[in-house]
Amino acid sequence: MTHLEAVNPQDPPPVWAALRNEAAHTAQNEPSLASLLNAVILKHDRLGAALSYQLARKLGDQEMRAMGVREIADEAYAADPSLITKAEADLRAVFERDPACKGYVQPFLFFKGFQALQTHRVAHWLWTQGRLTLAFYLQSRVSEQFDVDIHPAAVIGSGVFLDHGTGIVIGETATVGDDVSIMQGVTLGGVSTDPGDRHPKIGNGVLLSVGAKVLGNIKIGDYAKVAAGAVVLKPVPAGCTAVGVPAHLVNCPTCEHPARTMDHTIADGDVGL
């Protein structure tokens, strides 16, 4: 399986089939990993079963053993199959957008951004069921294990790519649309002690670059970009790029699909903010 084959929009391979095929091939070529690949991927008959096993393997501890974590994830997947649909889209997003990613096995087993996001999806399901303490427990484990801190109430769309993952913080009332890419060190934070709606609303197809800070109940429009290190305190229109501290707008419109192309470049020209 080549990188070009997986991103061909005319014939995208089914994620679960591609993951299993790649795992089987890797197990043959790397016998030292065969036991791991069999336990996590090959012995399962569906993506949800493999994913719950993987999350349990990563998050189980002395307070909650791996089997307990797995049972929670399985319960969530059975109650809301869209969680698996989103996981498929997230896994494909990693593979398509990260040139360092060589296949599906790599992010599934090793990329903490993907694993943190899938744990958040389970925690968010718990939150919607009123099981707040257990949701917070999973949030805490993700923060400890992956250095990613996403409040379980935050709403995150599908096809989301958390690149590297380290240092990402997403607050309670934040929302993130579909096909968004978020780099390491990004914060979607509040600016007051008001317990109400106080966090950013990120549109579809947005690219949030390294170390970007988006603060307050503001909207980042569809297919906008926030440049590395920018501090955004005001809304950003769709298709624009915010740069600087405090941020101002440049190159409106920006490239057509910044989150998918991972185009971090900034054109000259200040249009204000």
Q: Label the structural class.
A: alpha/beta
Uncertain segments are 1-10
State the end-to-end distance. 45 Å
CATH topology of the largest domain: serine acetyltransferase, domain 1
- Overall pLDDT confidence: 92
Summarize the SSE layout with pairings.
Elements: H1 3-7, H2 15-29, H3 34-42, H4 47-59, H5 66-79, H6 82-97, H7 105-110, H8 112-128, H9 132-146, E1 149-150, E2 155-156, E3 161-162, E4 169-170, E5 175-176, E6 181-182, E7 187-189, E8 201-202, E9 207-208, E10 213-215, E11 219-220, E12 225-226, E13 231-232, E14 241-243, E15 248-250, H10 258-261
Describe this structure in words.
The protein is α/β, with parallel strands linked by helices and 273 residues long. The chain has two domains: 15-147, serine acetyltransferase, domain 1; 154-273, Hexapeptide repeat proteins (UDP N-Acetylglucosamine Acyltransferase, domain 1, 3 Solenoid). It contains ten helices and 15 strands. The strands form three sheets. It has a six-stranded mixed β-sheet. A five-stranded parallel β-sheet has the order 1-4-7-10-13. The protein has a four-stranded parallel β-sheet with strand order 2-5-8-11, with no helix packed on it. A hairpin with a 4-residue loop joins strand 14 (241-243) and strand 15. Helix 4 packs antiparallel against helix 5 (66-79) and helix 5 packs across helix 8 (112-128). The radius of gyration is 19 Å and the shape is globular. Mean pLDDT is 92; it is low at 1-10.
